Amino acid sequence: MLDVLVVGAGPTGLVHALWLHSQGVKVRIIDRTGAPGTTSRAMAVQARTLELYRQLGLTDEVVSAGFRTPAMNIWARGKHRARIAVQDIGRGISPYPFILVYPQDFHEKTLVAKLRSLGIEVERNTELLSLEDKGEHVASRVRRADGTEETIHARYLAACDGASSTVRKQLGIGFEGGTYRHVFYVADVELSGLDNAGEAHIALNGEDFVVVLPYSSDGKARFIGTVRDERAEHAENLTFDDVGHEAMASVGIHVDKVNWFSHYRVHHRVADRFRQGRVFLMGDAGHVHSPAGGQGMNTGILDAINLAWKLAAVIHGQAPDALLDTYATERQAFARELVKTTDRIFSLVTADGGFANLMRSYGVPLIAGVIYTIGSARETLFKMVSQTGLAYKDSPLSEGRAGDVEGGDRLPWVNVDGQDNFEPLPVIGWQVHVYGTATPGVRAWCLRNGVTLRQFSWADEHGKAGLKENAVYLLRPDTWVALADPEGSADTLDAYFTSRS
Fold first, then answer.
1. Is residue 317 part of a domain?
2. Which letter, b or e, does each residue of 241-258 get, where b requires 16 or more Cβ atoms within 10 Å of its Cβ?
3. Residue 393 lies in a domain
4. What's the structural domain count of the chain?
5. Distance between CA 238 and CA 228 in Å, rounded?
6. Are 125 and 40 members of one domain?
7. Does 22 score more than 60 pLDDT?
8. Domain coverage including residue 164
9. pLDDT digits (tens, 9 = 90+) for 449-496
C-alpha cells in the first residue's frame, strides 16, 4: 500500500514529497493543474528554509539562481528617508545571512526537477473528488483530465491544496478568521527610471504605496500595492492602469512592460485543527495571513518538513502514533502567532487617515533606521523574518537546558575555522552534538542506537553562541534541539526516548 498521498504540488507539497522520499517513504503527489505556476507569486526564500534545504542538496542551486537583495530603501512623499543594508543582516546567525528573492515559479520548477531526478513525477490534471478515512488508511477518489477515475489507498493523506482546500472543506474543518477590506495588486514588471533599481524599495505617498522587489539585475521586479478608491468596489475588472501610480511617480519609476498582473483580498485565517485522523493540513490549507515579511511559503515548507520526519518515524515503526499529534501542536501554535504578528504590521501599513499617513511618511522610516543601528534589534528582526528564531519550547518533544540553549530551540549556528556545525548528515535522522568531549557512555549509547555523534573541539565561539562545553544536544531530524543536557549523560538520552516510547 502507498504510504502517503500528497494533494497539491505547490512548494509545500513538493518539499513534503521530497522529504518523505528521502526517508524511504512511498509517496505519490497529485495536482489538479496542468503545469507548475508561471507567475512569481511568493518571492522570498528565508534563511531557515535554506538551512533545511541543505539536507536535500538543494541550497546551493537555489541560492545561485536567486537574487540577493542588497538593501531596502524607504521613500516618503518623493524623498529618500532611509537605506537599510540587508546583504549580511544575519551575519553570525545563519550561513545564509541575506534576503534571497527567488520567484515561486522558478522555485517550483527546481523542486519538480529534483523530484523527477528521484523517479517521482507530479501527477498533473488529477483532481481529488472525495476521501474517506477508513481507520487503517485513507481512500481517495481522484479524476484525471480524460475523465477516468481511480481510488488511491494510502496510509496517510497530506493536504497541501491551498487556501480553498478541498480536503479541509470535505472534512468540515473550520477556517476561522477574516478578510481585510483593502484590495491588493501584484505585478511583475520591467521598469526604468528608479535609482538603485537592483535594491528593494518602499515608496509611501499619502495613502498610496508601492513595494518594489527586484528579482534580476536587468530591471525585472515585483510590485505590491493597494487599490483604495471606488475602483476597489469593482476589482474584478481591474488592470494595472487602474491602480494608484502616485507612489511610483514620486520616485521616478517608469513601467516599460507589465508581464503579469493580479489582484486579491488578503485573508487571515487558521484552521481549527491541523490533523484529523490520518489526514493532515499544511501550508495555505491550514493557515493564511498577510504577505508582510514574506512568511507564507516558507511557513508552509516548514510545515512540510516538520510532518515528514514524524510520518517517516511512525510508518517505519520507530515511534507511536502520538508523535504525529506534535505536528499540530507545534505548527498550529506558530501559525496563530504568525497571523497575530503579520496582522499588526499589516494594519499599520494599510490604515487610513491623516495620522496613519503621517506615521507612514515619517514614523516608519525613523523606526526602521533606528532598528538598523541597534545590533540587538537588528538581530531580533532578522530572526523573526528569517524564521531562525522559531522555537518549539512548549512541545512535548522539547526538554532541558544547557547554556542558553533550551529544548525546542533552533541550534545556534557556529562556524569555527571552516567547521560548520550545520553540515548535513548523509541521511536525515537524529544526531547528538557535543561541543567539547563526549563521555564514553554517550559514545556507546549513540553507537548502540544508531544515532550519529558529532563532536566539535571547544572554542570561544561556541560559548558566545550560548552553547555549554561537554553538554549533550540531541537534535531532531529537522535539526531543532529536542534535548539539552548540561551533564552530558547517556542516561538522560535513554530516559528521553523511553519516556516517549
1. yes
2. ebbbbebbbbbebebeee
3. no
4. 3
5. 12
6. yes
7. yes
8. 2-65+102-174+272-348
9. 999 999 999 999 999 999 999 999 999 999 999 999 999 999 999 999
Determine what percent of the chain is predicted with pLDDT higher than 90.
67
Instruction: Label residue 19 left, alpha or beta by phi (over 0 means left) and psi (-120 to 50 means alpha).
Output: alpha
Cα→Cα distances 60→92, 96, 389, 414, Å: 19, 11, 22, 19
DSSP 363: I
What is the Cα–Cα distance from 64 to 62, expressed in whole angstroms?
6
pLDDT per residue as tens digits for the range 33-80:
988 775 557 889 999 999 999 999 999 999 999 999 999 998 988 888
Say yes or no: 308 and 341 in one domain: yes
Residues 6+ apart with CB under 8 A from 241: none
58 shares its domain with 88: no
How many whole angstroms separate alpha carbon 173 and alpha carbon 21? Answer: 28
CA-to-CA distance for 284 and 296, rounded, in angstroms?
8
User: What residues have CB less than 8 Å from 426, skipping those under 6 apart?
Assistant: none
Report yes or no: 65 and 106 within 8 Å, Cβ to Cβ: yes
Distance CA 167, CA 173 (A): 9
Give the rounded percent of residues in the chain with a pLDDT score beyond 70.
90
The C-alpha cell that represents 73 in the structure block: 530603501
Same domain for 143 and 11: yes
Which residue reads 504577505 in cell numbers?
Answer: 291
Residue 143 and residue 202 in one domain? no
DSSP letter for each residue of 130-164: EEEE-SSSEEEEEEETTS-EEEEEEEEEEE---TT
Local structure of residue 390 (DSSP, 8 states):
-
Question: Residue 275: pLDDT band by 50, 70, 90 thresholds?
Answer: very high
pLDDT digits (tens, 9 = 90+) for 129-169: 999 999 999 999 999 989 999 999 999 999 999 999 999 99
